[in-house]
Amino acid sequence: MTRHFWVWCDCYLPRVKYAHMVGLSAVYWVLWRVRNSVCFDKKQVKSPFEIVCLASSFITYWAGLQKQEAKMNLEKGAEAMKEVALHFHL
After folding, report:
1. Would you call 67 helix, strand, or coil by DSSP?
2. Contact 67, 44 (CB under 8 A)
3. Is the pLDDT of residue 66 over 80?
């Protein structure tokens, strides 16, 4: 599946590949944390939107660690991610 993601990135968004690495890392990190909460703390995920919002929050946070251009791209990507998820959530 990851290979398909990178093919898609190269094809449609080749100029900001680093942003996709950060985004993919955020999604993987959130999935791992949510999995641990479900397995060890017996918590439930109410909606997939929770996962998207958490990933978006991580991306926004990590954007603060980047240079200005990368920061702006990551912040825009995080916001777009939330908007698309919200569109499908409603």
Report:
1. coil
2. no
3. yes
Angle between helices 17-41 and 48-63 (to 10 degrees): 130
Angstrom distance (rounded) from CA 27 to CA 5? 13
CA distance 86 to 42: 26
50: helix, strand or coil: helix
Residue 36 pLDDT > 90: yes
Distance CA 20, CA 16 (A): 7
Structure tokens at 4: 């398909």
Residue-range domain boundaries for the chain: 2-89
Q: Please state the pTM of the whole predicted model.
A: 0.76
Q: How far apart are CA 26 and CA 1, in angstroms?
A: 16
